[in-house]
Fold each of these.
Amino acid sequence: MTDPNEPSADGQRSASPALPPGPLRLGVIGDPVGHSLSPALHGAALRALGLDATYVRWHTPAAELPARVASLRAPDVLGANVTVPHKQAVMALLDTVSPLARRAGAVNTVVHRDGRLSGDNTDVAGFSLALTEARADIAGRAALVLGAGGAARAVVLALEGLAVASITVANRDPERARRLAADLAPTPVRVVGTDATTLAGEVARCSLLVNATAAGWHADETPLPLDLLDCLGGDAVVYDLTYRDTALLAAARARGLAAADGLGMLVHQGARALELWTGRLAPVAAMRAAAEQARDGGGTGASASDRDRATTG
């Protein structure tokens, strides 16, 4: 596997593994998956690479997960993405799981090779690449992460790799946040509540604010009172894992702050997954264009965060 912070590019690896003869199959496993943008971005990538393969939605209730995972061992299947609610349950059904996925506590990518299934997590790399794409000067910033679910875990691990000065996780359920901090040790994570006074103080001391909650899925939802953005310094960065424009992002831009949504994370995690399946460098530009078209044309407000839990959407 390549360095998780190494950007993908158009083209082909010099040592691509031999793929089975086509047609080949890929898909996204979850419940629900009807909103997923992954078929659009991966379909565009497969066409750009000239691969005889398709990528579809595999709606899979929990009771059907073992059978669905077993079906990935078929010779014509390269692998799958995994989204809510199966990113943890799938781990026990695989032959191997990468150290990063074990640390994150979630698998969002399954790779099939010669009858064996391996699990990995591309959300960490996806967020890292998307964040530095939005703003290069991330190292040394004080980060405040809103939320303590699966997406927040990926965000925290990515921030650790980006050498931020500090990581604080704010969550309305303190016990859930404490579990995150304990599970990700020795990564130093401060845990705070979400009452107005605490949030005001934490927002004032941070220079990177990340929304890893589902708040923003609906247009009138915000993860915190928007007037707290007045506490941010002028060079602060606001990142919302929801992969469309949100009230939080609009309010940040209105204050002159750098702001980005989660579409870049969705694209980059998908690009890394594609590279694991095929051994080829992902056509990121084609994937981004397809994702934007599907998002803007399809009316979905899906989230690369805990709504879709996994930034696989």
Amino acid sequence: MRSGRRTLDEWGIGRLPDRMSLGSVVTMKVLALGLVLLCLAAIPARAGSLVQVRTALGDLVVELFDEDRPVTVQNFLRYVRDGRWTHMFSHRIVSGFMVQAGGFGVTNRGTTNIAFVDIPDYGKITNEFNVGPRISNTIGTLAMAKVGGDVNSASSEWFINLADNSENLDNQNGGFTVFGRVLNSTNALSVFNTFTWLDTQPTNRLYNLVGTGFPFNFWPNPPAFPTLRKILSYPEVFDNLLFIEVVELPLRVQPRVDGRPGLQWTSVPGIENRVEVSGGAGSGWTLQGSVVPNGPVSAFEDPSPGDGPRFYRVRLGQ
């Protein structure tokens, strides 16, 4: 598939080079903001996009940093919306470091003609590590992979930090752009950290595929190629790939449908949803309520709406 030795150090992170021609810090917020009067039909909304990263080992709810990393987020969402990452799998896991995806997938999944494919990319994007507030490569953050020695080389490959990698990744190759963070997961990050090279380990195995005939002879050497179970033959690889699906989570905000002052929104279960209220520019925000939903819709009734303008915002996570 792709080849070439990287120039980064052993713990660096790189997007594999093309072959012939894989909160904050700033509080990133889901923000519903608008003038609320009973006659309004809707509340204009600004939002940090939400996506769900789905794997066989558990799912993660991720908030993207639209406002602070606009180029990177729009690039990421383009791949999601266009279906470029359909049947994508993780091609590299380094326990205690990162899990990487975005470069490879399969075609004809579920058939005897299944085969590995390179995911076609949309070209390089501008590195945004030093744009806006500094957001470090801490545990649970998402960042773009790059080619060693090329600051503006991120395209389709991305990774999730499985540890605090800020000292390393913030300070090499212009910094690795962090564009999102995990808000909630079903213990998936911990499970990713269980992948090892042990021959006796029947599940969550890593392999060195260099010289084996597998089409992944790439840096680092050995590559930490993950499979869900121990493999003994080439066909078993396809049955044990760690597939990753990324889907958008719609978050809609509107006035309460019963006409009472306040708002309702499509909530994210299992994550703290906080409602804050402001009287306008310069007046600051006041926490009015907090809930950890167990259903798809949450609502808030303002106990003292008053006669002047009221602005609301919903923030997810800490």
Amino acid sequence: MSSTFGTICRLTTFGESHGPCIGMVLDGLESGLEVDLSFIRSLLARRRPSHSFETSRVEADELHIESGIKDGRTTGDPLCMLIENKAHDDKSCIKGFYRPGHGDYVYSQRFENANLLGGGRYSGRETAARVAAGAIAMLALKKKGIELSSALVQAGLETDPERFETAIDNARCNKDSIGGIILLRASGLPIGLGEPIFDKAEALLSHAIMSIGSVKAISFGDLDLSSALSNNQKASGGMVAGLTDGTELLARVTFKPTPSIAAEQNILFQDGTVQSMSLEGRFDAFLGYRIGCVIEAMAALSLLDMWYMRYGR
């Protein structure tokens, strides 16, 4: 199992959904970077559920700094942060079957003694550690004049923001869930980030963002397929020949509907039988208001790694 991402700036996450804590180690950071803890907390707050159609599991996400920060600035040593798990409930985890659309079955086949409680390592809970690390990367990038942002542009088939919550409520009333699309932007990038041929900027960003559990597709640029005339710059998405070109980076990230739904489904049990039943638990009907900060975090970690490859620390 691989839990480390990056070449020079390397992120390792650890912990499980229903374990005592999750955490991260960020190695390869520059020394002397001012760490704004209030900014990290604000990004974590964006990830927490805040709507009635989102999971009822609400964690405080209190940060515990174990190493790598002295007097409010990075030391250059590995930076380690822990986030306690306090709101999990092992009793709510029904054992004996594999949840449809989750990693339960494939993990149990791949790893002999896998911890499947609440999804274990492949739970969305792990993304809190990514967000904490990504917030630090965003602070480092901001110091270099680079800013990231994201916006929800589609919920299910709905593209009118004023009707997003109606589409989500309709899915929830039908005991279902919907996916959507996040628009990611990065401004202030220099010319030349990326490592052609195989580590092009698009490839590295795709690797980072596609590692998020719910993400299923990514495209770059404003893709108008009708003509190249007058559309070349928009279609590039801020990258040409695998290198950033100094213009705004633009990516559309598609995330899937959450697999845990209240509707009755055919469920595979560990004894090999299949039964029709509905799941009980704390489900998200939609991730669009929570996943944007995770996408920003992974993009920031990838871009900072590219910066270090290009310019050093």
Amino acid sequence: MMKRVAVALDGSPQAEQALTYARSLAFELILIRVVRERMVEELEAGSAQEAAHYLGQVATTLRERGQPCTVRLASGQTASALLESLQDCELLVICSQGRTGLAGWLKPSVAARVASRASCPVLVVRSGEPGSLESKLAGPQWAPRRALVALDTTSFSEGALPAACSLLTQRPAQLVLLGASGLPPVDSDSPDFSARQMQLARLSQYLQRAGEEARAYDMQVSWRVEDATASEAILDWADRERAEVVCLATHGRTGPARWLLGSVSEKVLQRSRRPVLLVNPRSSSRPAGRAGHE
């Protein structure tokens, strides 16, 4: 279990869905709400007061259920202010839709950029139905046992492995490692077929080595190789494997097969029905060690 997990809230019931995921992952929750500069100008002090009051209500509800939490009210440009509030946090949980919806700062392109700059991994979850916070907290806690981890043979993408393992706190747990060519498949009579098969063979060997190392996290590991574009492979295999969370790095290969760059993250965020864990491999922070351990 992690020590501190941040949850981004915007005052809407839909965004509170993030709490149902975060509360099973950490000893303490850090509740963050950003008062945007435009709101400050238009509403003056009332906006900050309303935001502080809202966070206080959420914190009281959580504490009544035995969940330690701290509130942080930030102001400024939303994404930047949120990023500055993540000190000492091991994970940020945000909803893909909230008060601002997909037209606002949590649309996939912005969520991917936030993850690429965050000092910790970012778990993006689908927003919930309107309803009381009490009803959301009364439901079962999120306890994933099966994660799909996308890898592309670079050390950048390997940062997703320990982050994924930190979410799988229940046993037995399983990691499914996925590698893809990052390109549309080719027919056997194509002049590129032999080169593509060699690429897939190298990828398979890499995944096997990565899988052997991942077994140190005390979980079952399997791997899959797909000759397809990255986003299609990730979404397809997440369904096939019934993954409870999809994990990928925000940056990876920079050559022709650059399939873990932001555009892939955005496509996966847009279409995934599952929580997506985005990991910035350049982050100075590290996940909370092996799953199930402090």
